[in-house]
Amino acid sequence: MESQVRGGTRWKRFAVVMVPSVAATAAIGVALAQGALAASFSVSGQSFKVTAKSLHGEGFAQYGALDQGYTMTGQKALHPVAVSAFKSATIQKMCQSVVTPDLPVIGDVTLRLEAGDSSDKDKQVQADRLYIDVEDLQTDAVFHNIDIGVAAKDASKGPGMKGNGEQANPFGFAQQADSADLTDVKQTAWATTAGTFKLSGLHMSLHKGSGAKIECY
Q: Which residue in 98, 93, 74, 73 sits closest to 22, CA to CA?
């Protein structure tokens, strides 16, 4: 009986720890009314991994910024990121994963989210006014009508600079393109925001442990 009670307590603690990770990773229901998003939140002390078989984006812009956030111990921190922004995006076979490390008794736990595993574009992930705050990116990319070296404030092809949740120099380096096609995407990110984020065929699962075989990569 004692072990059952203790076990129940541990799983309640586990749920409390995992809920913020679910919210941060899934990014479902983030509906900010303005065309230029006002991201007034601080990023958590955890980055997350994202993969996609392909991403087609219309109205692309990218610029450097500092995300305001925390470490895992609650200390304030700044995270340098490259903000990839799209007026709209279609993503095939998207995977997102985040690890909550070192839970008592359990150890590492990985939250994994998958969606859009279809060749039918109507059943793929759809997003508009999409912003991804990227720390590391690996992909094959094709940009259409690209401008490199634009001042961030003048990158008019994308959805505009995001706003309050980041520190970005409006006169800093940026690039923009009419559209972008990315394949075999692997990236580590601190935040994702969107006006709408439609996840067709959503599957969310929890796994004990971490590493390439459990996470998205």
A: 98
Tell the residue number behind the tokens 């219309």, with chain if given: 58
User: Environment class of residue 7 by beta-carbon count within 10 Å: exposed (0-12), middle (13-18) or buried (19+)?
Assistant: exposed
The residues, ordered by sequence, that sit 6+ positions from 154 with a Cβ below 8 Å of its Cβ are 174
Q: Check pLDDT > 80 for residue 64.
A: yes
Residue in this structure with the two tokens 């409390």, named with its chain if needed:
16
Gap between the Cα atoms of 91 and 106, Å rounded: 33
Query: Is the model's pLDDT at 59 over the cut of 80?
Result: yes
What are the pLDDT digits (tens) for 145-169?
999 999 999 999 999 987 645 678 8
CA angle 59, 60, 64 (to 5 degrees): 145
CA dihedral 192, 57, 135, 155 (to 10 degrees): -100
Q: For residues 20-59, b (16+ Cβ closer than 10 Å) or e, as one string?
A: ebeebbbbbebebeeeebebeeebbbbbbbbbbbbbbbbb
Q: How far apart are CA 190 and CA 108, in angstroms?
A: 19
